C-alpha cells in the first residue's frame, strides 16, 4: 500500500530523514518508536504529503506523493495540536470537513464522535473542551471518513487511563476494517499493545525495522 | 484587541485623508508630487489599512485545523482561488466602507473607472501579499508591501505609467488589463509554491 524508498529530507544542515526504506500494508498497525528528533513526526509528515523529500520517493497505491498526487487520497491524520477549529462545535467542525470530500454522512459523523466518547449534541465550542476532550475530538476528525490510511502522532496524549483503553479499541477496530495505521508514540505500552510491527528510528534513520 | 486596534487606526487615517484631500480627488489615488508630506503619509495609511486584514491569512495554513482541510482537497487550485476571493472580498469591503465615508464627508463618489481602477489595484496587492506571506512570513510580507507603497507615496517621480499598481486615477484600460494579467500570474506562482511548500506546523 505504502512504499517509502530512500526517503531523505534535510532542514538546514540537519538530515531529519536519512535514506528511509519502509513498506506498509493495509489492515495493520505500525508503531514508530524513537526519541525526540528521531524523525518519527517527519516521516509521518512526508507520508501525508506535508513536506517534500530532497531525494527518494513515497508511493501510495503506486502513485508518487508530490508528483502524481499532492496528498494521499484517503487519509486521516493527527499530527498537529490544533486539529479542529476552536470556535465551532465538534460536530460542526466535522461537517465542514465532510463537505470537502463528500464521503461522510451525518450518521458517520455522529458515530465517530460517540466512538471517541464525546457527545454529538454537545453545544460547547471545542475551545471550551478539556485537553483530553480536544485530543478525542482530534481522533474523531482522523477517523470519521473511514480513511484507508491513518497517521497518528502521540494519539493518547492527555487522555485518561480509561480513555486510552477506549482509543486503543478504536484503533484496533480501524485496523480490522482494513485501514493501515502508522502510530508514533513515546508510550511503549501503546506500541506493545497495538502495533503489529514496531519500527525503531534514531537520528532520521530506521535502525530496527519490524520487531 | 487586534481587531479594535485595527479599526481605530483605519478610522483615524481614513478621516484624516479625506479631510485633507482636494475636492475633486478620490482619497485612494495618489496626489501629484507636490502634495504635502502629511497628505502623502495619510494616503499611505489609507491604502495600507485594508491590506492589514490579510495578515496571517496564509500563515494559518500551518495550523492543524487548516492542514486537515488542505490534505482533504483533491484540487489545490480550488482552495487557492477560494482563499484569494475571500481575502479580496474582505479587503474590498473595507475599501467600500472608506469610499462611503469619503462620499459622506466630501460628496465625491468617484467615477466607475475610478472604482474599477481601485478594484484592480487591490486585486494585485492582495495577490502580492499572499505570495509574500507564503514565501516568507506575515511580518516580512507586511513590511515589504508597506515599503513598496511608501515608495509610491513618497516618490518624487510620476509613476502614472504603472497605472493601477501605483494607484493612479488616470489609468487606461490596457494598464488595468495588464494588472489583472499580473495578478493571475502571481496567483499561478502562488499555487505552484503552495504545492512545493513544507508544512511543519505551528511553533515547530
From TrEMBL, chain A:
Which residue ranges does the record assign to the ABC transporter domain? 2-211
Does this entry carry the keyword Hydrolase?
no
Pfam families according to UniProt: ABC_tran
Q: Which GO terms describe its molecular function?
A: ATP binding
The UniProt entry, under InterPro entries, shows: AAA+_ATPase, ABC_transporter-like_ATP-bd, ABC_transporter-like_CS, ABC_Transporter_VariousFunc, P-loop_NTPase
Which keywords does UniProt give here? ATP-binding, Nucleotide-binding, Transport
Keyword DNA damage present in the record's keywords: the answer is no
Protein's name in the database = ABC transporter ATP-binding protein
Q: Report the source organism.
A: Leuconostoc pseudomesenteroides
Automatic annotation (TrEMBL), chain B:
Q: Mind listing the UniProt keywords for this protein, alphabetically?
A: Membrane, Transmembrane, Transmembrane helix
Top-level taxon of the source organism: Bacteria
Span-the-membrane segments of this chain are 37-58, 79-104, 124-152, 173-191
Protein's name in the database: ABC transporter permease
> Which species is this record about?
Leuconostoc pseudomesenteroides
Amino acid at each position: 500500500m505504502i512504499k517509502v524508498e530512500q526517503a531523505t529530507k534535510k532542514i538546514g544542515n540537519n538530515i531529519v530523514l536519512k535514506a528511509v526504506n519502509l513498506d506498509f500494508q493495509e489492515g495493520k498497525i505500525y508503531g514508530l518508536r524513537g526519541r525526540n528528533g528521531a524523525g518519527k513526526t517527519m516521516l509521518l509528515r512526508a507520508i501525508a504529503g506535508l513536506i517534500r523529500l530532497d531525494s527518494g520517493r513515497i508511493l501510495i497505491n503506486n502513485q508518487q506523493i508530490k508528483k502524481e498526487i499532492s496528498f494521499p487520497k484517503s487519509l486521516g491524520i493527527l499530527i498537529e495540536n490544533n486539529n479542529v477549529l476552536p470556535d465551532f462545535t465538534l460536530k460542526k467542525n466535522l461537517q465542514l470537513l465532510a463537505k470537502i470530500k463528500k464521503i461522510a454522512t451525518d450518521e458517520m459523523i455522529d458515530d465517530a464522535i460517540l466512538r471517541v466518547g464525546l457527545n454529538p449534541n454537545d453545544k460547547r465550542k471545542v475551545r471550551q473542551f478539556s485537553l483530553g476532550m480536544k485530543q478525542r475530538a482530534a481522533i474523531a476528525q482522523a477517523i470519521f471518513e473511514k480513511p484507508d490510511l491513518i497517521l497518528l502522532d502521540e494519539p493518547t496524549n492527555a487522555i485518561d487511563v480509561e480513555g486510552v483503553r477506549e482509543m486503543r479499541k478504536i484503533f484496533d477496530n480501524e485496523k480490522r476494517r482494513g485501514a493501515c495505521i502508522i502510530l508514533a508514540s513515546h508510550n511503549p505500552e501503546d506500541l506493545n499493545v497495538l502495533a503489529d510491527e514496531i519500527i525503531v528510528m534514531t537520528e532520521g534513520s530506521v535502525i530496527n525495522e519490524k520487531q | 484587541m487586534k481587531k479594535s486596534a485595527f479599526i481605530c487606526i483605519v478610522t483615524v487615517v481614513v478621516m484624516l485623508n479625506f479631510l485633507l484631500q482636494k475636492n475633486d480627488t478620490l482619497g485612494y489615488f495618489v496626489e501629484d508630487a507636490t502634495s504635502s508630506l502629511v497628505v502623502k503619509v495619510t494616503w499611505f495609511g489609507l491604502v495600507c489599512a485594508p491590506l492589514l486584514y490579510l495578515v496571517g491569512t496564509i500563515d494559518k495554513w500551518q495550523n492543524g485545523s487548516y492542514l486537515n482541510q488542505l490534505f482533504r482537497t483533491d484540487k489545490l487550485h480550488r482552495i487557492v482561488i477560494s482563499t484569494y476571493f475571500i481575502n479580496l472580498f474582505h479587503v474590498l469591503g473595507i475599501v467600500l466602507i472608506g469610499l462611503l465615508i469619503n462620499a459622506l464627508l466630501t460628496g465625491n463618489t468617484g467615477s466607475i473607472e475610478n472604482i474599477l481602477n481601485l478594484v484592480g489595484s487591490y486585486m494585485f496587492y492582495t495577490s502580492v501579499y499572499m505570495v509574500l506571506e507564503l514565501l516568507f512570513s506575515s511580518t516580512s510580507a507586511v513590511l515589504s508591501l508597506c515599503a513598496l507603497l511608501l515608495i509610491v507615496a513618497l516618490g518624487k517621480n510620476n509613476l502614472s505609467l504603472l497605472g493601477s499598481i501605483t494607484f493612479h486615477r488616470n489609468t487606461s484600460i490596457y494598464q488595468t488589463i495588464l494588472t489583472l494579467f499580473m495578478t493571475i500570474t502571481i496567483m499561478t506562482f502562488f499555487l505552484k509554491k503552495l504545492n512545493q511548500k513544507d508544512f511543519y506546523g505551528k511553533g515547530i
